[in-house]
């Protein structure tokens, strides 16, 4: 349905593609600020150009280039994502409708996110990586209007996201520092940093792009 009243956080379709409202400025001519969910591209528009979508179980969509399926029947996992669909924040929390949050820790039935929010199970849907067989893709309001150029753009976006994911270190990977000959294991990942076994903190991207480090064992590989 078209929107007459808008709210920050709503998922909407703009020009047939799934977006999220991140700001509403009533006195501006183009009062609604959105970003496209699949790649975070920003745009300004009017409320009457939007169609509301309420996320639900088994909805599937691209988020930052990777496909996810919303699940109400799966538990949250550390380092995975959740979508907060029924926000009921406590006094120390700072999340709103349809926030994408990364899971930092699980304690009992509650999720502690990397943004230091505490979220109860009734408030969110789990974002399971990939597209489930019984899922419904919601990237576009009308699939028949999708052009071959958009399909190719989405394919390249997923390929790029997959390549970037393959360059993310895992706990247990062992690297050799070519400058001093020290071998060290990744013992923790915090945001964009890898914490090595000897205490050094290294930007995760530097483990792949720097001339100082080379991987000698990756936990995702069968052979040592």
Please name the defining characteristics of this protein:
single chain, mainly beta, 3 domains, eight-stranded mixed sheet, five-stranded antiparallel sheet, 18 strands, 10% helix, globular
Could you provide a short overview of the structure?
This protein has 224 residues and is mainly β. It contains 2 helices and 18 strands. It is 10% helix and 39% strand.
What does this structure look like?
The chain is mostly beta strands. The protein has 3 domains: 11-53; 59-141, SH3 type barrels (Roll), CATH 2.30.30; 174-217, no CATH class. Helices cover 10% and strands 39% of the residues. It has helices at residues 148-166, 206-209, and strands at residues 11-14, 17-24, 32-36, 42-45, 50-53, 59-63, 66-71, 81-84, 99-107, 110-113, 118-119, 124-129, 136-137, 174-177, 183-190, 193-196, 201-203, 213-217. The strands form 3 sheets. The chain has an 8-stranded mixed sheet. A hairpin with a 2-residue loop joins strand 6 (59-63) and strand 7. The mean pLDDT is 89.
Spell the H/E element sequence: EEEEEEEEEEEEEHEEEEHE
Based on the structure given, which CATH architecture of the largest domain is correct?
Roll
Count the beta strands. 18
CATH fold-level name of the largest domain: SH3 type barrels
Biggest sheet layout = 8 strands, mixed
Structural class: mainly beta
> Uncertain spans, ≥5 residues at pLDDT below 50?
none
Radius of gyration: 20 Å
**CATH class of the largest domain, anyone?**
Mainly Beta
Instruction: Order the strands across the largest sheet as they lie in space.
Output: 11-10-9-8-12-7-6-13
Give the overall pLDDT as a whole number: 89
> Quaternary arrangement of the chains shown?
single chain
Helix content: 10-25%
Tell me the β content: 35-45%
User: Could you say which overall geometry the principal axes of the C-alpha atoms support?
Assistant: globular
Number of folding domains?
3
Q: Termini, distance in Å?
A: 55 Å
* Tally of helical segments: 2
């Amino acid at each position: 349905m078209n929107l007459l009243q808008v709210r920050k956080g709503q998922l909407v379709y703009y020009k047939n593609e799934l977006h999220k409202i991140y700001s509403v400025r009533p006195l501006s001519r183009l009062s609604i600020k959105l970003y496209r969910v699949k790649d975070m591209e920003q745009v300004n528009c009017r409320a009457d150009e939007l169609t509301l979508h309420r996320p639900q179980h088994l909805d599937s969509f691209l988020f930052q280039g990777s496909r996810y399926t919303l699940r109400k029947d799966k538990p949250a996992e550390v380092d995975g994502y959740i979508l907060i669909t029924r926000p009921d924040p406590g006094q120390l929390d700072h999340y709103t409708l349809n926030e994408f949050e990364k899971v930092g820790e699980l304690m009992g039935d509650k999720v502690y996110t990397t943004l230091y929010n505490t979220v109860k199970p009734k408030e969110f849907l789990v974002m399971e990586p990939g597209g489930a067989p019984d899922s419904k893709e919601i990237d576009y309001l009308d699939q028949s209007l999708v052009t071959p150029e958009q399909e190719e753009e989405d394919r390249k976006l997923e390929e790029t996201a997959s390549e970037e994911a393959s360059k993310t270190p895992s706990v247990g990977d062992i690297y050799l520092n070519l400058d001093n000959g020290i071998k060290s294991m990744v013992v923790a990942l915090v945001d964009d940093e890898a914490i090595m076994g000897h205490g050094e903190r290294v930007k995760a991207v530097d483990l792949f792009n720097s001339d100082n480090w080379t991987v000698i064992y990756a936990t995702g590989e069968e052979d040592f």
